[in-house]
Write a structure and sequence with these properties.
Blueprint: E1 10-14, E2 21-22, H1 23-30, H2 35-44, E3 46-49, E4 52-53, E5 59-60, E6 65-69, E7 85-89, E8 93-98, H3 115-126, E9 133-134, E10 143-149, H4 152-163, E11 168-176, E12 183-187, E13 190-191, E14 201-202, E15 210-218, E16 222-229, H5 236-243, E17 267-275, E18 282-286, H6 291-298
Parallel strand pairs: 10-17
Antiparallel strand pairs: 1-6, 2-5, 3-4, 3-6, 7-8, 8-10, 9-10, 11-16, 11-17, 12-15, 13-14, 15-16, 17-18
Length: about 300
């Protein structure tokens, strides 16, 4: 198969504009490439029009076949045979249901045994040679949907959608107490109380953070709630839940006296919806609650 065939490194477009336009401008204005990425393609990849290599200043016309080859990459993590649950995979993205207890990528405390190592193993076995680019991040003990891009453009495209608040991210959490309102919005800025602090707090000088919530089910002493992020600050849901007096159970950072029911924060990335970077169609992916949370919900312990 030619490297210019449509695959995770290559995108093919048919120009539909009635007037001629530079290839660079067509990619930025009509295909959603960033100027930075276009410059990178110039250095590391190829641009072809009707089978011939061209420069970014080449004038494309209606009916032209424009091929964008992003360039070769190597997997940037060591492969480890770690079981993962694949929700969806195609030429551009990999969607996983992450188990709690896994960090997404290597850190000083977790140089191996992380989700990136598991993805590297899967891609090595399926012939994918790409850097591992997480579109969304989950804390180590948060379970659920996580999206990985297989190339620079897919990552940039979905990240741009996130910045414009076009990506729907839904979480479920078990919190302390009976949440009285059926639904509501928490609009409270979040920041670090001091430099290098792991913990975040609600503070006026922090970054604006907005979380929408609604009650799914009330129990005797706890509530199962659904949360939708409008912004994506570090620990946003955990901080906001604590801020309204209903911290997430099992959260040893923001609610350390509640770990008798569950050994990690009871927070699950339930669903994500976004426009696919290649098909430009809306796609949604969902992950069922993991056993530790689902067992609690049907038990009489809450």
């Amino acid at each position: 198969m030619s490297k210019y065939s449509e695959n995770y490194r290559t995108y093919i477009y048919t120009v539909e504009l009635p007037v001629k336009i530079r290839a660079r401008d067509y990619l930025v204005e009509y295909c959603n490439y960033s100027s930075r990425l276009v410059r990178k393609i110039k250095r590391e990849g190829d641009i072809l029009v009707n089978g011939q290599k061209v420069t970014l200043s080449y004038l494309v016309a209606k009916g032209d076949k424009l091929i964008i080859y992003l360039g070769e990459e190597d997997i940037d993590a060591e492969p480890e045979n770690i079981p993962t649950t694949i929700v969806h995979e195609d030429e551009d993205i990999l969607v996983l249901n992450k188990d709690p207890g896994f960090v997404t990528h290597a850190t000083l405390g977790h140089p191996t045994g992380n989700l990136a190592n598991a993805i590297a193993y899967h891609w090595k076995n399926t012939g994918v040679q790409a850097k591992i680019r997480f579109v969304n991040r989950l804390d180590r003990d948060t379970s659920g949907i996580i999206v990985i891009a297989k190339n620079k453009f897919a990552h940039q495209f979905i990240q741009d959608e996130m910045k414009e608040n076009k990506v729907e991210k839904i979480y479920w959490a078990i919190v302390e107490g009976a949440v009285q309102a059926e639904k509501g919005t928490i609009d409270a800025a979040i920041g670090r109380p001091y430099e290098d602090s792991i913990e975040r707090v609600i503070m006026e000088e922090g970054q604006r953070a907005v979380t929408h919530y609604q009650v799914i089910k009330r129990f005797k002493n706890h509530t199962l709630i659904q949360l939708q992020l409008e912004t994506g600050r570090t620990h946003q849901i955990r901080v906001h839940a604590k801020g309204i007096g209903h911290p997430i159970i099992g959260d040893n950072l923001y609610n350390p006296h509640s770990i008798e029911l569950i050994q990690r924060q009871a927070l699950h990335a339930k669903r994500i919806k976004f426009v696919h970077p290649r098909t430009r169609k809306m796609m949604g992916f969902e992950a069922e609650l993991p056993r530790d949370m689902s067992d609690l919900v049907v038990s009489e312990k809450l």
